[in-house]
Design goal:
alpha/beta, TIM Barrel, 3-stranded parallel sheet, 15% strand
Length: 298
């Protein structure tokens, strides 16, 4: 989840704990039985990529995971606290398309910096890390020093383990995030995906030089301010995301299959068909995974 001043429909701040599995009423599904909503324009949801979604913050966590799996959307279920890891890991481990990421959200560091040892204890269980990073927005700037200390330790731990893929929050802190990545996580030791990136074009060029990828959601493509930045991102580093449930589609929380709207927006931006653009994103994901495979020689 990113800063709230970007999109008025988003929740007031990240919550510290995942929701408990609730009744189907109000759960993030289209039909009574929880089946996914139809994808527009005849594009098949199977093979789409949602690389940043808070499945544990939907009303019914288990149903949200099951719906993403049925839709065939390759979904990265990020967490905001390491205490959420066991449940997320358990629900995703039996799926083909959903993977869980181990997080310690920067907006929560002021309250939960002491959970870093818990986070570190789980790190060997996962290839994916997030949501982590920095938030220099006015509501969270008071903890910025603690955020930097925790994010530094996160990067150092990932570098020691090797082969990790991080989804990183960088609200009003792109340069500081990149400084720490450059200092502590060289590309051979792991890769960073910058989630909902809104730094400058110069920051984006520097991020690309550091080997970073960028996950783009539909909201980023709906504003005149952000579209030029997205257009400047290297197409071979683009992934897609929803950041659900903190974004909305048709007046309800976005679901992983709604990531098709980000694909459609990128397709228009790059003068490609939706199917071609979906293929580009899948190829980029395969490349990212290959870049973080363990070295058989090492």
């Amino acid at each position: 989840m990113s800063a709230l001043n970007r999109a008025p429909h988003r929740a007031s701040r990240v919550t510290s704990e995942p929701s408990r599995d609730a009744s189907p009423n109000g759960s993030p599904h289209n039909s009574r039985d929880g089946s996914p909503a139809p994808v527009p324009d005849g594009t098949d949801a199977v093979g789409l990529v949602d690389f940043h979604c808070h499945l544990d913050l939907y009303e019914d966590h288990a149903a949200a995971v099951a719906a993403a799996e049925r839709a065939g959307v390759r979904t990265l279920a990020v967490t905001t606290t390491p205490r959420a890891w066991p449940r997320n890991h358990a629900l995703s481990s039996g799926t083909r398309h959903v993977r869980a990421a181990l997080g310690l959200h920067p907006q929560l560091v002021g309250e939960r910096a002491g959970e870093f040892p818990i986070w570190e204890g789980y790190l060997a269980e996962t290839r994916y890390v997030g949501e982590v990073g920095l938030d220099a927005g006015p509501r969270f700037y008071g903890s910025f020093g603690a955020q930097q200390a925790v994010f530094t330790r996160v990067l150092q731990a990932c570098a020691r383990h090797g082969g990790k893929i991080l989804t990183v929050h960088s609200v009003r802190a792109a340069a500081a995030v990149l400084d720490l990545i450059e200092a502590h996580l060289p590309p051979p030791r792991g890769r960073v995906v910058l989630h909902w990136f809104t730094g400058s074009k110069a920051d984006a060029r520097r991020a690309a030089d550091l080997g970073c990828y960028f996950s783009v959601n539909a909201a980023m493509l709906q504003t005149e301010r952000h579209r030029p930045l997205v257009a400047a991102l290297p197409i071979d580093r683009l992934l897609t995301e929803t950041d659900g449930p903190f974004t909305a589609t048709a007046g309800r929380p976005s679901r992983p299959e709604d990531v098709v709207h980000a694909v459609e927006g990128l397709a228009r931006l790059h003068s490609r068909s939706v199917r071609e653009m979906a293929g580009v994103v899948r190829t980029n994901l395969r490349t990212l995974l290959a870049e973080t495979e363990p070295d058989p020689e090492g």
